Amino acid sequence: MRFDIVTLFPDFFSSPLSSGLLGKALAKEIASVHLTNPRNFTIDKHRRVDDEPYGGGVGMVMKPEPLFAAIESLPILDRREVIYLSPQGRRMDRDLLWKLATNFDQLVLLCGHYEGIDERVMNLVTQEVSLGDFVLTGGEIPALALLNGVVRLLPGTVGKSESLAAESFEDGLLDYPHYTRPAEFRGYKVPEVLLSGNHAEIARWRRQQQLQRTRDRRPDLLTDANLEEEGTNPSKG
User: Fold this and answer.
1) Least CB-packed of 41, 61, 71, 208 within 10 Å?
2) pLDDT recorded at residue 71
3) Integer angstrom CA distances of residue 161 from 33, 60, 101, 153, 155
4) pTM score, two decimals?
């Protein structure tokens, strides 16, 4: 299996990729790992990969251009999955790892930073995966966890295959979409409300996006108060 990790910190993986069962599996070519730094695909002299978010707010957002270029530079195998490591994704579990290990030949792992990635990059992503309901400094740690979890399931990694069979958020809502410059990229446009300068409307739009995303992706996180705010609480007549 081929792993392509898109990361601003490729050195983070140096020791883990040469250690333990993972290092042995790579040495035996059970899997291969390739590291791609989006900073190498920037076109400005400062090699900038982040910018201020449209609509205001704290933090920075990873720009679409270097991420698109980095991902599009990779080879494409027939059975390929592009995974964004994000607190908003499906929680990593045994079933997911087995599915990835048995149904794909290539996993592209996108590691985010700052406040996240420009939402338009999600057009290249086929799945979001989360390590849990908490925030880390970047996507490298969950990417390494996923890589390790999948590789150990591949035939030949664990000495005795029988051992595998014997193994056993602030307001509770998901985040809203983030966008940064440019306002239009490859036909994908930033929502007009974020360009309006109307902070009340921006706040209202972001809250609606949070509620909608949480309802669609993690309904178990919704409380009665949030459902009433959204106007969809079935317990109220």
Assistant:
1) 208
2) 98
3) 23, 45, 14, 9, 8
4) 0.83
pLDDT at 235: 58
Domains of the chain: 2-165 (3.40.1280.10)
The tokens for 169 are 């958020």
